[in-house]
Design goal:
Distance between the termini: 57 Å
Number of domains: 2
Shape: globular
Strand content: 15-25%
Largest sheet: 6 strands, mixed
Number of helices: 7
Strand order of the largest sheet: 1-2-3-4-6-5
Length: about 260
Protein backbone atom coordinates (compact mmCIF):
# COMPACT_ATOMS: atom_id res chain seq x y z
CA UNK A 1 0.00 0.00 0.00
CA UNK A 2 2.79 2.44 0.93
CA UNK A 3 4.46 2.01 -2.48
CA UNK A 4 1.16 2.81 -4.17
CA UNK A 5 0.72 5.95 -2.07
CA UNK A 6 4.31 7.00 -2.83
CA UNK A 7 3.67 6.58 -6.56
CA UNK A 8 0.48 8.65 -6.32
CA UNK A 9 2.38 11.34 -4.43
CA UNK A 10 5.15 11.31 -7.01
CA UNK A 11 2.58 11.59 -9.79
CA UNK A 12 0.91 14.55 -8.06
CA UNK A 13 4.26 16.32 -7.62
CA UNK A 14 5.17 15.65 -11.25
CA UNK A 15 1.82 16.97 -12.46
CA UNK A 16 2.24 20.02 -10.25
CA UNK A 17 5.69 20.76 -11.70
CA UNK A 18 4.38 20.52 -15.24
CA UNK A 19 1.43 22.77 -14.44
CA UNK A 20 3.79 25.29 -12.86
CA UNK A 21 5.63 25.34 -16.18
CA UNK A 22 2.38 26.23 -17.88
CA UNK A 23 1.83 22.82 -19.48
CA UNK A 24 -1.70 21.48 -19.65
CA UNK A 25 -1.75 17.74 -19.01
CA UNK A 26 -3.97 15.74 -21.31
CA UNK A 27 -5.00 12.19 -20.40
CA UNK A 28 -3.23 12.37 -17.02
CA UNK A 29 -3.91 8.71 -16.33
CA UNK A 30 -1.79 7.77 -19.34
CA UNK A 31 1.06 10.07 -18.36
CA UNK A 32 2.56 7.80 -15.74
CA UNK A 33 5.57 9.18 -13.93
CA UNK A 34 8.80 7.46 -14.91
CA UNK A 35 11.98 8.52 -13.23
CA UNK A 36 14.11 7.18 -16.09
CA UNK A 37 12.25 9.49 -18.50
CA UNK A 38 11.33 12.64 -16.59
CA UNK A 39 14.55 13.24 -14.70
CA UNK A 40 15.90 16.68 -13.79
CA UNK A 41 17.72 17.14 -17.12
CA UNK A 42 14.57 16.32 -19.08
CA UNK A 43 12.41 18.60 -16.94
CA UNK A 44 14.87 21.44 -17.55
CA UNK A 45 14.71 20.88 -21.33
CA UNK A 46 10.92 20.64 -21.10
CA UNK A 47 10.77 23.87 -19.12
CA UNK A 48 12.86 25.73 -21.72
CA UNK A 49 10.71 24.51 -24.61
CA UNK A 50 7.49 25.38 -22.77
CA UNK A 51 8.87 28.81 -21.89
CA UNK A 52 9.64 29.41 -25.58
CA UNK A 53 6.06 28.35 -26.49
CA UNK A 54 7.05 25.16 -28.34
CA UNK A 55 4.82 23.01 -26.11
CA UNK A 56 1.44 23.88 -24.60
CA UNK A 57 -0.01 20.41 -23.94
CA UNK A 58 1.57 17.08 -23.07
CA UNK A 59 -0.47 13.90 -23.35
CA UNK A 60 -0.14 10.16 -23.22
CA UNK A 61 2.55 7.86 -24.52
CA UNK A 62 2.69 7.16 -28.25
CA UNK A 63 5.49 4.62 -28.15
CA UNK A 64 8.27 3.24 -25.97
CA UNK A 65 11.43 2.26 -27.80
CA UNK A 66 14.80 0.84 -26.83
CA UNK A 67 16.30 4.26 -26.16
CA UNK A 68 13.43 6.74 -26.07
CA UNK A 69 9.80 7.41 -25.22
CA UNK A 70 7.49 9.40 -27.48
CA UNK A 71 4.54 11.37 -26.11
CA UNK A 72 1.65 13.10 -27.80
CA UNK A 73 1.64 16.86 -27.38
CA UNK A 74 0.25 20.07 -28.78
CA UNK A 75 1.60 23.48 -29.67
CA UNK A 76 -1.24 26.00 -29.90
CA UNK A 77 -3.69 23.20 -30.75
CA UNK A 78 -1.35 21.76 -33.41
CA UNK A 79 -0.47 18.09 -32.72
CA UNK A 80 3.21 17.37 -32.08
CA UNK A 81 5.30 14.38 -31.05
CA UNK A 82 7.64 14.81 -28.06
CA UNK A 83 10.53 12.35 -28.17
CA UNK A 84 12.56 11.97 -24.98
CA UNK A 85 15.80 10.02 -24.99
CA UNK A 86 16.29 8.29 -21.63
CA UNK A 87 19.53 9.36 -20.00
CA UNK A 88 19.51 6.76 -17.23
CA UNK A 89 18.66 3.64 -19.21
CA UNK A 90 19.71 4.30 -22.84
CA UNK A 91 22.21 1.82 -24.28
CA UNK A 92 25.46 3.80 -24.20
CA UNK A 93 27.48 1.15 -26.08
CA UNK A 94 25.01 0.82 -28.96
CA UNK A 95 24.69 4.57 -29.39
CA UNK A 96 28.47 5.03 -29.37
CA UNK A 97 28.86 2.70 -32.35
CA UNK A 98 26.71 5.00 -34.51
CA UNK A 99 28.28 8.26 -33.27
CA UNK A 100 31.89 7.11 -33.62
CA UNK A 101 33.00 7.71 -37.19
CA UNK A 102 30.39 10.41 -37.88
CA UNK A 103 32.46 13.48 -38.77
CA UNK A 104 29.61 15.76 -37.68
CA UNK A 105 30.03 14.62 -34.07
CA UNK A 106 33.75 13.87 -33.83
CA UNK A 107 34.10 16.49 -31.08
CA UNK A 108 31.51 14.89 -28.78
CA UNK A 109 32.82 13.79 -25.40
CA UNK A 110 32.42 10.18 -24.35
CA UNK A 111 30.33 11.01 -21.26
CA UNK A 112 26.89 9.42 -21.44
CA UNK A 113 24.88 12.61 -21.05
CA UNK A 114 26.83 14.45 -23.75
CA UNK A 115 26.47 11.46 -26.07
CA UNK A 116 22.69 11.42 -25.68
CA UNK A 117 22.49 15.18 -26.27
CA UNK A 118 24.52 14.64 -29.46
CA UNK A 119 22.24 11.75 -30.45
CA UNK A 120 19.18 14.01 -30.14
CA UNK A 121 20.84 16.70 -32.25
CA UNK A 122 21.89 14.00 -34.72
CA UNK A 123 18.32 12.82 -35.22
CA UNK A 124 17.15 16.39 -35.72
CA UNK A 125 19.89 16.95 -38.32
CA UNK A 126 19.12 13.66 -40.08
CA UNK A 127 15.41 14.50 -40.28
CA UNK A 128 16.23 17.89 -41.81
CA UNK A 129 18.46 16.28 -44.45
CA UNK A 130 15.87 13.59 -45.23
CA UNK A 131 13.05 16.14 -45.48
CA UNK A 132 15.11 18.35 -47.77
CA UNK A 133 15.70 15.32 -50.00
CA UNK A 134 11.93 14.87 -50.37
CA UNK A 135 11.57 11.88 -48.07
CA UNK A 136 8.40 11.58 -45.97
CA UNK A 137 9.60 11.92 -42.38
CA UNK A 138 8.25 13.74 -39.31
CA UNK A 139 8.85 17.48 -39.68
CA UNK A 140 11.68 18.34 -37.27
CA UNK A 141 10.66 21.38 -35.20
CA UNK A 142 13.14 21.95 -32.38
CA UNK A 143 15.42 20.10 -29.95
CA UNK A 144 16.95 20.76 -26.56
CA UNK A 145 19.27 18.44 -24.62
CA UNK A 146 17.61 14.99 -24.83
CA UNK A 147 14.23 16.19 -26.08
CA UNK A 148 13.12 16.40 -29.72
CA UNK A 149 9.90 17.98 -30.99
CA UNK A 150 8.50 16.77 -34.33
CA UNK A 151 5.25 16.91 -36.23
CA UNK A 152 2.76 14.23 -35.19
CA UNK A 153 2.16 11.51 -37.78
CA UNK A 154 -1.39 10.40 -37.14
CA UNK A 155 -5.02 11.39 -36.81
CA UNK A 156 -7.20 12.17 -33.79
CA UNK A 157 -4.22 11.68 -31.44
CA UNK A 158 -3.67 8.16 -32.79
CA UNK A 159 -0.36 7.58 -34.62
CA UNK A 160 -0.30 5.96 -38.03
CA UNK A 161 0.29 2.18 -37.73
CA UNK A 162 3.65 0.53 -38.27
CA UNK A 163 4.05 -1.05 -41.69
CA UNK A 164 4.05 -4.51 -40.11
CA UNK A 165 0.46 -3.98 -38.92
CA UNK A 166 -0.98 -2.79 -42.24
CA UNK A 167 -2.83 -4.85 -44.84
CA UNK A 168 -1.41 -3.34 -48.01
CA UNK A 169 -3.66 -2.96 -51.04
CA UNK A 170 -0.70 -2.81 -53.40
CA UNK A 171 2.43 -4.28 -51.75
CA UNK A 172 4.48 -3.91 -54.94
CA UNK A 173 3.80 -0.17 -55.08
CA UNK A 174 4.66 0.25 -51.40
CA UNK A 175 7.85 -1.76 -51.90
CA UNK A 176 8.78 0.51 -54.77
CA UNK A 177 8.18 3.59 -52.58
CA UNK A 178 10.38 2.20 -49.79
CA UNK A 179 13.19 1.30 -52.21
CA UNK A 180 12.95 4.77 -53.72
CA UNK A 181 13.36 6.20 -50.21
CA UNK A 182 16.49 4.11 -49.56
CA UNK A 183 17.90 5.27 -52.89
CA UNK A 184 17.03 8.95 -52.39
CA UNK A 185 18.24 8.89 -48.80
CA UNK A 186 21.63 7.63 -49.97
CA UNK A 187 22.02 9.76 -53.09
CA UNK A 188 20.36 13.05 -52.14
CA UNK A 189 20.49 13.20 -48.34
CA UNK A 190 23.80 11.28 -48.30
CA UNK A 191 22.52 9.18 -45.41
CA UNK A 192 21.92 5.53 -44.60
CA UNK A 193 18.98 4.90 -42.26
CA UNK A 194 20.86 2.03 -40.55
CA UNK A 195 17.77 0.58 -38.83
CA UNK A 196 15.14 0.44 -41.53
CA UNK A 197 12.48 -2.22 -41.09
CA UNK A 198 8.73 -2.67 -40.87
CA UNK A 199 8.98 -1.38 -37.28
CA UNK A 200 10.46 2.00 -38.29
CA UNK A 201 8.10 2.75 -41.15
CA UNK A 202 4.61 4.09 -40.49
CA UNK A 203 1.93 3.79 -43.15
CA UNK A 204 -1.09 5.88 -44.04
CA UNK A 205 -1.52 7.01 -47.64
CA UNK A 206 2.16 6.22 -48.17
CA UNK A 207 5.16 5.11 -46.08
CA UNK A 208 6.57 7.51 -43.48
CA UNK A 209 10.09 6.92 -42.21
CA UNK A 210 10.88 7.41 -38.53
CA UNK A 211 13.58 6.80 -35.91
CA UNK A 212 16.57 8.32 -37.65
CA UNK A 213 18.80 8.93 -34.65
CA UNK A 214 21.17 6.14 -35.67
CA UNK A 215 21.28 7.16 -39.35
CA UNK A 216 24.83 7.76 -40.60
CA UNK A 217 26.42 9.75 -43.39
CA UNK A 218 27.69 7.96 -46.49
CA UNK A 219 31.30 8.43 -45.39
CA UNK A 220 30.74 6.66 -42.07
CA UNK A 221 33.05 3.61 -41.88
CA UNK A 222 30.06 1.28 -41.46
CA UNK A 223 27.67 2.99 -43.89
CA UNK A 224 27.80 0.24 -46.53
CA UNK A 225 27.18 -2.69 -44.14
CA UNK A 226 24.32 -0.68 -42.58
CA UNK A 227 22.87 -0.09 -46.06
CA UNK A 228 23.00 -3.77 -46.91
CA UNK A 229 21.27 -4.58 -43.62
CA UNK A 230 18.49 -2.10 -44.45
CA UNK A 231 18.04 -3.67 -47.88
CA UNK A 232 17.90 -7.18 -46.45
CA UNK A 233 15.36 -6.14 -43.81
CA UNK A 234 13.05 -4.59 -46.39
CA UNK A 235 13.39 -7.51 -48.81
CA UNK A 236 12.71 -9.97 -45.98
CA UNK A 237 9.46 -8.19 -45.12
CA UNK A 238 8.20 -7.86 -48.70
CA UNK A 239 9.39 -11.14 -50.22
CA UNK A 240 6.16 -12.99 -49.37
CA UNK A 241 4.02 -10.03 -50.45
CA UNK A 242 5.46 -9.15 -53.87
CA UNK A 243 8.47 -9.69 -56.12
CA UNK A 244 11.62 -8.14 -54.68
CA UNK A 245 14.98 -7.23 -56.17
CA UNK A 246 18.11 -9.19 -55.40
CA UNK A 247 19.90 -7.83 -52.30
CA UNK A 248 23.27 -7.33 -54.00
CA UNK A 249 21.74 -5.99 -57.23
CA UNK A 250 19.78 -3.42 -55.26
CA UNK A 251 22.87 -2.50 -53.24
CA UNK A 252 24.82 -1.88 -56.46
CA UNK A 253 21.96 0.19 -57.93
CA UNK A 254 21.80 2.44 -54.86
CA UNK A 255 25.53 2.91 -54.37
CA UNK A 256 26.74 2.80 -57.96
CA UNK A 257 29.38 0.32 -56.85
CA UNK A 258 30.01 -2.94 -58.61
CA UNK A 259 31.59 -5.04 -55.92
CA UNK A 260 30.81 -8.21 -54.06
CA UNK A 261 28.38 -7.99 -51.16
CA UNK A 262 30.08 -6.07 -48.30
Amino acid sequence: MSSGRNLDKKQDLFDQRLEEMGVRIKDADQLKVREDVFDEVTLLALYKLVHKKWISVIGGSISTGKEANVFYGERDSTPIAIKIYRIRTANFTTMSSYITGDRRFSHVKKAKKELIFAWTRKEFSNLVRARDAGITVPEPIVWDRNLLIMSFLGENEVPYPQLRNVSLEDPAETYSQVIDCIDRLYKKAELVHADMSEFNILYHDKPYFIDMGQSVTRDHPRALPFLMRDIKNINRFFKNRCDVLDDVELFHTVTGLNTAEP
